[in-house]
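Folded chain entry —
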Amino acid sequence: MELRHIRYFLAVAAEKNFTRAAERVGIGQPPLSLQIRDLEREVGARLFHRIPQGAELTEAGKAFHDLVRNIPDHVERATQSARRTARGESGALAVGYTNSSALNPVFAAALRNYRRAYPGVALSLNESHTAQLIAELLDGQLDVVFVRPADADAEHVKIRLISEEPLMAVLPSKHGAAKLTKLNLADLRDESFILHRREDTPSLFDTVIAACRKAGFEPTLGPSVPQLVTIVQLVAAEVGVSLVAASLQALQIKGVVFKELHDVSPKTRLSLAWRRTDTSPFLKNFLACAFG
């Protein structure tokens, strides 16, 4: 039994006339009658009474009609759903991001552009540190991740730079260096530096260490913490100082000041990473929104 048999049957049932039904479906009346006879043979029961005025459903035809009348609509909806999914307009996308990337304007812009362009896609968000996000990407739990550049498996992960911004010193507001017109990183050589754990975000950790060495000193390391908000809060508590992305000024945590550095110019980079084998339209569309 083919879908056309169902369509022909429903046309005759609606028109109660083979000639008008044939015009409705765009075939001749004799071929339509043959198709209905084929359907009746396959069903094993008469579906129509032929009467002088046209045709009417038998009891078997009524029972058949009750169950098949919505099939063409279901097929049409299924077809449209499949087409939307193939175009990446309906489905789901899992996005991962680091705590700091959520404060970067490109993060919000990418999500906003994607949501506007593809409102039918269910977007799930997961925050973690770079190492964990890459692991979940490789496991297939995430489709695309915002991360600080990492030593990812280049054979399986593709990484593309999306943003670069300067690192700034964050100091307790009552720190003596907070009042300096020009702050050099070397002015903080005697301070304890509160940083991310290196195993979580190695690129950012290494950038800070390299900047200190370029400024002529080996930094004293204070507490290692997983969250940027915690770093800034510990600076406010006068536990130490730190270097953080300039976008963190948006946190507006009391008790700290952000200062540009004049002797060195360390930068932090934000990248998008995805599996090389992923050819889904959802990922393709998201990348176009992020980089477009």
